[in-house]
Amino acid sequence: CSKNTDGKTACEAGQCVIPKLNTIQQLHQNYHTLINLDTCKDSSDREYYDSARPVELTVEGVVTAIREDELGFVIQEPSEDGKQAGIYVYCQGKDCMKYTGTDTHIQIGDNVKITSDGIGHFYCQMQIRSFQNKLKIEKTNKTESIAPVIVLANDLNTGKPDSPYYGSLVTIERFTTGTDKQENPTGWPGLDENGKDIIVNNGLKPETLNAMEPQKTYQVTGIVNWAFNKNVIVPRSNDDIIFQPNCEENETSVKCLKMAGTVYLTTCTDGQETQEACASNKQCDKDNQICRDLAI
Questions:
Q1: Which helix H or strand E contains 26, and what residues bound it?
Q2: Which residues make beta-bridge pairs with 222?
Q3: Would the N or C end of the chain have less CB density within 10 A of its end CB?
Q4: How many CA within 13 A on the CB side of residue 142?
Q5: pTM value?
Q6: Of 79, 139, 83, 135, whose CA–CA distance to 109 is shortest?
Q7: Residue 209 phi/psi, 5° resolution?
Q8: SS3 165
Q9: Which residue ranges in the chain fall short of pLDDT 50?
């Protein structure tokens, strides 16, 4: 132990307190005590940055994502609302991507048990890490599964790394891309259906950004992560990005759609669309067929 209970003073005999954590929810509940959010973004004082502090940790969950470069994976506890349920497991070597003592690789959907002696962070992203090379990964006989929860951008845009959805699998149903990709964080900036900003990042699989085009609407599923002081959604593969055309092939209809914060009356004629923005005091009716007054 190198720190006292205040996290700063060198330990004296008998003063060390090592946290004992048994659920991912407990990790989230103790985010502020495990990671110093006041200094973790400061390059001159990043305690436990890219390293670990001692803990006694045993958690179970379902593998929901794996980094393409095999530097880690994400697990999530079953939860009705998906909050305080996910965490990233950092691998300091590719052997971490196999179950301890075996040649069996970890797969998405596996139910696992993680035993570790460390918690650290990378630019304020809390991660399960090894403190003194004691990271054990076991496959369990449980058959639990994780389904993404549907969220809006405002659910994620807390401005802090300890979002309740950090590490969780989520879906934004109507994400409209901007005019071009960006850097820092790398990704597609865009708007959800209410016109709120969110970024789709490529931290798990870089080529996922190529599955999107400018100013198109998609359903996007991915892991919530913290990158360059923003909460972002990180798809696991191209399968997590589904184009949502306003008009299906050969469709003839009239419907009201909300995209990027604007309500449109969309007319489909043999699959070809024309759009007219509704007035600012209008919204879609309950059947999504007409624009109606907000007061109705």
A1: helix 24-29
A2: 170
A3: C
A4: 17
A5: 0.86
A6: 139
A7: -65, -25
A8: coil
A9: 1-10, 13, 45-46, 296
